[in-house]
Specification:
This protein is of the alpha/beta class. The chain is built from 15 helices and 14 strands. The chain has two domains: about 150 residues, Aspartate Aminotransferase, domain 1, CATH 3.90.1150.10; about 220 residues, Type I PLP-dependent aspartate aminotransferase-like (Major domain) (Aspartate Aminotransferase, domain 2, 3-Layer(aba) Sandwich), CATH 3.40.640.
Length: about 425
């Protein structure tokens, strides 16, 4: 997630509107990631913090010619208001993309174009959840979704994950416990592929089980899938939506497979929900930008986007390997998953260390990461950090991990020093 660090991370003192805000605004907090950006983006800092895709390999020269042509030929449409559901051409264009993950029965009319997945998360929560309703979510959780749920005053209840993703048995246990407390469970939010931040993927075997449990308790599944086509070996997994079109709202985005600047993503939802999503999109933004949608269409129609995605996969695999290799060399005291796709490694740091407390020292040593605490709503996560390998070059990644190892080693030395001092007899 990216954001302008200069706005919400600044503390505004003497705000004359203090006390006037709606309750939902009171619960809004600058994410830990946003607060970090101001310093982490300095060139001398190796940032392993942000989830920005690397765009250096996009064919911008040729693209600008095609976009110029598009504007000349269809300028009146591009600069005009459009449909609240999204441009029909783009709604058609996303079908073959979804087919790569097994969704073959969706029609353009089932699709709603939104301003990035982030807006999709906002719209679905707005139409489904009242304050106090429960959303079940994997823990750790995508920080942007936590922000949305918080702003709608939803109770996020964590369901544990392991190396195969969400654990179905624990999902059912959690549902039963919540129902026993009289809670209204509205959705299960899941990022099944190459999870942000955990890096894991829900196994093929678990997918039907999760669907079955959600169906049994009439809980809508919100499947957030921005990374599904970024499996490093070209592997894809069947989308939950490909197995169930009635109980799943599917959300995907061009942000990671093309580029995030156009803010174009899409949702596929059962008819009743889709209708509400279109109304919510309209009341929120009137319509997604024609210019952005047509730029994406221009790219999809004129370039070999499958080759581009495959190029991205190779590039990100190389970066994942650089990070994994550097961690093995410099940080054997930590443990981590080796993700098969996506952007992130979820690093467990040695016992006794606190990723959040250590962060200022890491920034001083010119390396940035996101503390695991950002991905929990209950203060957990200080024993983990998220390392992103998407943006820096392999050489910078290795240097960043080397610097991080220096910080962790010094931290461990300090802890050991105090532990040894504790063992000394004292006469105080
Ligand atoms: C899991 C997940 N969902 C949604 C988003 C938001 O993506 P978009 O750029 O489409 O708003 C991100 C961005 O990092 C993400 O990781």
């Amino acid at each position: 997630m990216t954001d302008d660090p200069n706005i919400a991370s600044k503390i505004i003192t003497n705000d004359p509107w203090f006390g006037s805000y709606a309750q939902r605004a009171e619960t809004m907090r600058a994410s830990e990631i946003r607060a970090l950006f101001a310093v982490a983006n300095r060139p001398e800092v190796v940032s392993l913090a942000g989830g920005m895709p690397y765009l250096g390999r996009m064919p911008f020269d040729q693209l600008s010619e095609e976009i110029g042509r598009m504007l000349r030929d269809q300028g009146e449409k591009a600069w005009q208001y459009g449909s609240a559901q999204g441009d029909p051409h783009l709604r058609e264009d996303v079908l073959p993309i979804m087919a790569m993950e097994g969704i073959t029965n969706a029609q353009p009319d089932d699709v709603v174009i939104v301003n990035g997945s982030q807006s999709g998360l906002d719209l679905i929560t707005r139409i489904m959840c009242n304050p106090g309703d429960v959303v079940l979510a994997e823990a750790p959780n995508y920080v942007g979704a936590l922000g949305v749920f918080q702003s709608f005053q939803v109770d996020v209840v964590n369901v544990p994950m392991d190396a195969d993703g969400l654990v179905p048995e624990l999902l059912e246990e959690t549902i039963k416990a919540q129902l026993a407390e009289g809670k209204h469970i509205k959705m299960l939010y899941t990022v099944p592929n190459f999870h942000n931040p955990a890096g894991v993927t829900m196994s093929r075997e678990r997918r039907p089980k999760v669907l079955e449990i959600a169906k049994k308790y009439h809980i809508l599944i919100l499947e957030d899938n921005p990374y599904g086509l970024l499996g490093f070996d070209g592997q894809t997994y069947p989308a939950l939506r490909s197995m169930d079109s009635e109980n799943v709202v599917y959300l995907s985005s061009f942000s990671k497979i093309i580029a995030p600047g156009m803010r174009v993503a899409w949702m596929v939802a059962p008819p009743g929900i889709r209708q509400k999503l279109v109304l919510a999109n309209e009341s929120s933004i009137l319509c997604p930008s024609n210019m952005s949608q047509m730029t994406i269409t221009c790219y999809l129609d004129n370039f070999d986007w499958k080759a581009q995605i495959s190029d991205y996969r190779n590039m990100y695999r190389e970066r994942r390997d650089a990070m994994d290799g550097a961690l093995r060399e410099y940080l054997p005291s930590c443990s981590w998953n080796k993700p098969e796709g996506g952007f992130y490694i979820w690093l467990r740091i040695p016992d006794g260390l606190d990723a959040k407390a250590m962060l200022p020292r890491a920034i001083t040593a010119k390396v940035a990461y996101v503390s695991g605490t950002a991905f929990y709503n209950d203060g957990n996560g200080k024993d983990h950090m998220r390392l992103s390998f998407c943006y820096p070059t392999p050489e910078r990644i290795v240097e960043g991990v080397r610097r991080l190892a220096g910080v962790i080693d010094r931290e461990l030395e300090t802890i050991n020093l105090f532990n040894d001092a504790d063992a000394e007899p004292t006469s105080l």
